[in-house]
Structures are given as C-alpha cells and as structure tokens.
Amino acid sequence: MVLVHGLYHCPEHFAVVAERLRAAGVEVVLPELHRRSLLADTAAVQAAVDALECPPLVVGHSYGGSVITGVRGAGHLVYLAAFVLDVGESAAGLGGASAKLRGAIRPGPDGATSLDPDQAAGVLYGDCPEPLARWAIGLLRVQAPGCGRGTPEHHAWKHVPSTYVVCANDQAIDPGLQRMMAGRCTSVREWPTGHSPFVGRAELVVELVHELLSPGTPRMSRGVGQTPRASSAKPN
C-alpha cells in the first residue's frame, strides 16, 4: 500500500501506522511530496505505484487526496479528510482551509508558507495526546506556494473503488465539505476525530487498511455505514 501525506506534513507523520502495518506483513510505501507543484507531487506518487507488483491500496490525507486523484494504477483509493477533486477543481478553489487553519499560516519572503506551531497544534492535532501533538508539530515542513491551486489531469475516483473517511471533529477542513466530496466515493466512513487520526488514533487507520486489504472483503461492497457513489459522476 501507499500512504500519501498532506501539505506541511511528511512521511514520518505516518510512522506509527506504517510500523504497525509492516509488523503485520503489509508492504508500505511512503513517498515524499514537497515537489513544488501538484503535478510533480502526483508524479512522485505515480512512480511509487508503478514500482509495485500489483495495484496497491493508496491512502491520501488532506492535500494528499488531490495527489492520489491524479494517480493511475491504484487498486483502491482511501481519502482521509482529503480532497476528491473533479474536473477543473483545486483544493484552494473549494475553500479547503478553515478560518483557523488560515490563521495559523505564516507567509515567507519567497512565497512559501509555514504553520505557527502554537496555533497549528489545535487545528491539526487538537484531539491528540499532548506528547504526540508536540512530536507531530516538530515534523511540520515549510510548504512551497501553489500546490493547493493545482488541478489534477486525471480523476481516478471515477474509475477505481474508493473509500472516504470523514473526520467529524476536523478543525482544518470543514466536515461539511468533506461530506460533499465523500459523495463522489464508493463508500463512506465517519470517525469522531480531528484532522490527523494517523497521529492520535492510529489504530483506526490500521484497522481500515486491514479491512480493505482482506481477501474476503469485496472492494465494491456497500455495507453498514457506507453510502454509494453519486450516480452523476462521468468518466474522465
């Protein structure tokens, strides 16, 4: 499987999830983004997918959803409080950042931005134990300008089974916007978490991955707590 981080984050934020999955025998790939554009970030994830022997489960968090939307060859997509973009859409165009998140963003002299640690703690990790939140804050990166305004060239969710996880207590991306985008996916889950369950509730992510990778779980099934993809989606 492939785990794709979001803006300001890095692969190390998924460390606990990756460790538990690898201990259970799951091959986990953690591509590094921060390639300065959505298309370049997508190419980095595409290379990771292409290097695997079979179509992988691909998880995208937040902006990482914009990235995995453009990837070809995935077996199943998981959008974790993430952007499911349609033709011509961008994360910025959908109004992705909450007022609290915008208030935490600090511009740099070259157009890059960073997050104020004190404000970002509550926005991104407000439901996490304090030591974990402090650890996650220490990993945050400077973000190049423009990535959130990128539009995918391909829209994989129109062709590949997908699961959306709504984080109901998210302070970074409006849960209402998440539910709208979730309607584009094959199935939907809703967790009572903030924006970053892979930090504070890693077991939820691990359990979902095991379920979706289980040979006995039909990828297109719609069971309890799941809703069908909106019928208006058109191939692209």
Describe this structure in words.
The protein is α/β, with parallel strands linked by helices and 236 residues long. Helix content is 33%, strand content 13%. The chain has nine helices and seven strands, in the order βααβαβαββααβαβαα. The protein has helices at residues 15-23, 38-50, 63-69, 99-104, 117-125, 130-139, 175-182, 197-200, 202-213, and strands at residues 2-4, 57-61, 76-80, 105-107, 113-115, 162-167, 187-191. The protein has a five-stranded parallel beta sheet, sandwiched between helices. The chain has a two-stranded antiparallel sheet with strand order 4-5. Helix 7 (175-182) links the parallel strand 6 (162-167) and strand 7. It is globular, with a radius of gyration of 16 Å. The two termini are 24 Å apart. Residues 218-236 have low confidence and may be disordered.
Main sheet: which strands, in order across? 1-2-3-6-7
Order of helices and strands: EHHEHEHEEHHEHEHH
By DSSP (H or I, 4+ residues per run), the number of helices equals 9
Distance between the termini: 24 Å
User: Roughly how much helix do the residues carry, as a percent range?
Assistant: 25-40%
3D shape? globular
